Amino acid sequence: MSDFKIVFIQGYTASHLADWYPNISKELDKLNIDYTIPDLPGGEHPHADEWLETLHKEISESNKPLVLVGHSLGTRTALLYLEKYRPKVEKVFLIATFSNRVENAKRNNGEAYPDFFTHKIDLEKIKPRVGKFIVIHSKDDPSIPYKQAVEIVKDLDAKLVTYYSRGHFDLPDNAPIILKELKNELGF
């Protein structure tokens, strides 16, 4: 795959200026990789439909093969996007990922992002539309237990890449690790 567009899907309360996005942006710019990191609306009270609409506007502007990279809540958003819009996607990276459990809506007393988990996604319907799923998760993730990554790997027949000391993969020093995994899978 020599020509593609990478769409990063942020986590809860993040933006293109948060976490590892500024660091990975610098490296992708140097490599002349086509990518976008759309800022998704809602702050501490995001809504799935608004995130999906924002992503769809961004994604529909490109005719290149698509690569989705979701982090944390962005992993659920990626799966919801695949379910709703049914695009053909080369690869989907799920970093610090949720499983397909609806009880994830109860996190943070059910007030942070309950409408992202209103139903269990029929993963069998989206799997044929994706060339490959790659799940990247750290065993010491304090936010989303590693067992949720193991569950979604099984459900998606995904490749699992396990780390042991990266936490929730939200710190800026995770950019080189994520870039390495992207390079390994995308061949740039």
UniProtKB/TrEMBL annotation:
Pfam (any one): Ser_hydrolase
Superkingdom: Bacteria
A GO term for molecular function: hydrolase activity
SUPFAM superfamilies for the chain: alpha/beta-Hydrolases
InterPro entries tied to this protein: AB_hydrolase_fold (IPR029058), RBBP9/YdeN (IPR010662)
UniProt protein name: AB hydrolase-1 domain-containing protein
